[in-house]
Specification:
homodimer; 348 residues; six-stranded parallel beta sheet; four-stranded parallel beta sheet; 14 helices; 12 strands; elongated; DNA-binding
DNA sequence: GAATCATGAGAAAGCGTTTTCTCAGAGCGT
DNA sequence: ACGCTCTGAGAAAACGCTTTCTCATGATTC
């Protein structure tokens, strides 16, 4: 049995531009023209082509299209941990904003494996028209080297020396200082900072901010406790926190704060009566904890959509190496119920 | 100035297979062969090609590759709402599992707009090697019609009549019955079900389950209260819940339960002393609420990775229309601190 | 009425790969 | 030494589209 023949006829190959052309009795070129409305086509012919297209349910193959046009209408995002609500929110904002302009987003999760970031970003870039790099953990040197190769690139929570890469950053240093100030104003004098992942740039910013805070408040005791970035690490720090004797706790972020809240509750330590706790980020869950969490709100939803706007600007400018916007957000302290004046009993 | 010439020379076109071929003094074909290790190539030549490739930092263009191979190494996922932790978890599991096999994932968020689902799914399918449709809100008829056109397809929380589409579902009906049973066993006799989105298939399953529950427990009062699927809708239901006089509340999911928890706390209603509350899903936050939430755990992390496994099976079988696995998960009731025996005072 | 021009459709050349087809040359047997 | 097979590399086709180039046709102008 003529295999070649069978294969050719029978193969339920997707309908292509050629099929439409044949049915309408015109050339591929003409079909392409009417589908894209590029050149003038005789109205009668155009109608015939359109009819053939709907009848065959023709939909242009995006891969062929991408190859011909040199663009994919897709952007990539690489995040260190898709389990983190902050990154989820950014992804969501980005995706929705991009969709509005007909773009899709491809995701890559580096799972906090620093060495994977550059590879993932590169792969994403080759498949997409641009990449947004979200809180990359890689070194400054590596980032500096990688950035140009990624070009339509938007950085979140990091910056490059060259000003032709737009960046979105949050002033974590200021935010953490304001939270600390809030605790001091309430009367706390013994604080603990429960720090985050070592390679996190935002953690370093917090540390720098707290250095400044120390200079401004030599009378306040501020201990550092090493932690992580998630629930569990907050929960695990419970004993150490209690042992510290501090009355005001600055958790790395809301997740850590929530883990801690839960741990303290289990131990019968009341918040905020016995210990005050602050978070950071203001994830959607923060105002629903018990007690609702005092935190520093970063405009988590805007971040994603702004990232898209910056990306779009670059895609449209295509080439002209202009200097790009460096957006910086100031977190806003959100005072809820997890902080209060410390009990009046003198510290040990 | 010779524009054409300049453009050709100067254009910082990405390095292509042709450049490598030229540098190594061989043909495109040979470069392709050594890059893919398909055919036998003289070791000396292969080495020369490889050297040229690394020197030029050549990386094959995935779009060209996709066109030639007819596959993109990408799968799409469409979800009704990327803000929902359940879908986020599925996305994450899917993404990580797929990445392990060298696949990427493209996301599409229908934002609960039912009419968009089919379009998004179709577009995703054209760009990808397969699609996973997550809790689609579309009608059965529409789903039935769409499914074949999407073919390598995995359904989550829905099924088709034809058994050649693998599906992953959770027995919400049984789960909600077990939760209700748990409350009854504790001694509750007045319950409320705070329902979810109308078009959600999983909500319908819960309702069916509760119908059965009613038959099994004619002595128990079970009211229905219309709600939504997020924090806010739970929070907003607080008054209605209090007014209902019920002592046991079955929230649509954990999000709703958390909103309610928060609302009840604000109103000074104690959980579980005054009212017991259950959630559904066991999102990561559920065990960190105050009090920790009694809920029905769906294996949220497995769902994503299993979806990938089912997808991979189909991609590998390519063609042979075998009948596909229909996986069903039974939620496991997770008893925490938000449920307890009702106070002994007689109901109103 | 012939020369010029605008209009619009087909032919063909890309886009960057993979893969089949073809063929040169080396190695082997007789 | 001749022909045969076998290895391996280049030429070319294919993937599905867009776009430039080319050219026919009919309209316009002097």
């Amino acid at each position: 049995m003529g295999r070649g023949h069978m294969a050719r006829r029978n193969t339920n190959r997707r309908v292509g531009i050629a099929d439409v052309a044949e049915k309408a009795g015109v050339s591929h070129a003409t079909v392409s023209r009417v589908m894209n409305g590029n050149a003038a086509v005789d109205p009668g012919i155009a109608a015939r082509v359109r009819a053939a297209a709907v009848e065959l349910k023709y939909q242009p193959n995006p891969v062929g299209r991408s190859l011909a046009l040199g663009k994919t209408d897709t952007i990539g995002i690489v995040v260190p941990d898709l389990a983190n609500p902050t990154f989820q929110a950014i992804l969501r904002g980005l995706s929705i904003a991009a969709a509005q302009d007909g773009y899709r987003v491809l995701i890559a999760d580096s799972s906090e494996v620093t060495s994977e970031e550059a590879i993932l970003a590169g792969e994403a870039r080759r498949r997409c028209d641009g990449v947004v790099l979200c809180a990359p953990r890689m070194s400054d040197a590596e980032l500096e080297e990688l950035a140009p190769t990624l070009h339509p690139l938007v950085l979140i929570n990091r910056t490059t020396i060259a000003t032709n890469t737009p960046s979105l950053s949050v002033d974590y240093g200021q935010g953490i200082q304001e939270l600390a100030q809030h605790l001091v104003t309430l009367g706390h004098r013994r604080l603990v900072f429960l720090s985050g992942p070592e390679h996190s740039a935002s953690n370093r910013q917090r540390l720098v901010g707290l250095d400044q805070f120390r200079k401004d408040h030599p009378d306040v005791e501020l201990q550092m406790l090493h932690g992580g970035s998630n629930f569990d690490s907050g929960h695990e720090s419970t004993e150490a926190i209690i042992a510290s004797g501090a009355t005001g706790i600055l958790a790395f972020n809301d997740l850590v704060a929530m883990g801690l809240l839960s741990g303290l509750h289990e131990r019968g330590v009341r918040v905020p009566e016995d210990i005050s706790v602050t978070g950071f980020d203001d994830i959607p869950f923060a105002k629903y904890t018990t007690p609702p969490l005092t935190t520093a709100a970063v405009p988590i939803n805007e971040l994603g959509s702004l990232a898209w706007r910056r990306m779009r600007e670059q895609i449209q400018q295509a080439g002209e190496a202009t200097t790009q916007a460096q957006d910086e957000f100031s977190p806003r302290v959100e005072i809820r119920k997890s902080t209060a004046a410390p009990a009046l009993k003198p510290a040990s």
